[in-house]
Design goal:
The complex is a heterodimer of chains A (about 110) and B (about 120). With about 110 residues, chain A is mainly beta. Chain A is built from no helices and 12 strands. Chain B is built from no helices and 11 strands. The chains are: A mainly beta (about 110), B mainly beta (about 120).
Chain lengths: ~110, ~120
């Protein structure tokens, strides 16, 4: 069965530190890839997505992610985090079977 | 344009009862998906509907069912509620077109507590 793995369940960083959240998936066919964010008390929002073209995609709030097909990975990065980035981050994979599968999520806490 | 709207936002039910949750997708979106979100399990895919047809479903028991109407609005139903059904139920809508990226957009969810 298709699956999405997020390597870290909890991450604690200080402001201005760099962030990289790992995501790997198991589906071997063509995929659409997403990162969603859920800020405390808010609903899930799209950070960025990849479905074709340049494998390095940029999203909102300075986030970017790189699709590496050979590694089945779609890691999320941000060079300098802010306290306001404290949230839960979900990697998701959409495959042709009309469903989008989510990873378990990574809770990021940024210390001011 | 308006986002995904879910009703009710909060509800409390007793074990053995049934519940129906409603979702209105973004205007023009024909695909509606449902997810169950719990602290321990993350987001679990329930099912996806497109033009009134269920195209895919997750690994949930038959007590979980759904449907989609001709105006793309969707409902999900859970019968014979169990304590473990307590969760946030999320509805998401999209164009349903995989080749164009098929981004799904979430509603705020319906918080269900089973007592």
């Amino acid at each position: 069965a298709q699956s999405v793995s997020q390597h870290n369940h909890h991450v604690i960083l200080s402001e201005a530190a760099s962030l990289e959240l790992g995501c790997n998936y198991s589906y071997g066919g063509t995929v659409n890839l997403f990162w969603y964010v859920q800020y405390p008390g808010q609903h899930l929002q799209l950070l960025l997505k990849y479905f074709s073209g340049d494998p390095l995609v940029k999203g909102i709030k300075g986030f970017e992610a790189e699709f590496i097909k050979s590694k089945f990975s779609f890691n999320l990065r941000k060079p300098s985090v802010q306290w306001s980035d404290t949230a839960e981050y979900f990697c998701a994979v959409g495959e042709g079977g009309f469903k989008t599968i989510f990873g378990a999520g990574t809770r990021l806490f940024v210390k001011a | 344009k308006a986002g995904v709207t879910q009703t009710p936002r909060y509800l409390i039910k007793t074990r053995g009862q049934q519940v129906t949750l409603s979702c209105s997708p973004i205007s023009g979106h024909r695909s509606v998906s449902w997810y169950q979100q719990t602290p321990g399990q993350g987001l679990q895919f329930l099912f996806e509907y497109f033009s009134e047809t269920q195209r895919n479903k997750g690994n949930f028991p038959g007590r979980f069912s759904g449907r989609q109407f001709s105006n793309s609005r969707s409902e999900m139903n859970v019968s014979t509620l169990e304590l473990g059904d307590s969760a946030l139920y999320l509805c998401a809508s999209s164009s349903g077109d995989f080749l164009s990226g098929n981004t799904i957009y979430f509603g705020e969810g319906s918080w269900l507590t089973v007592v």
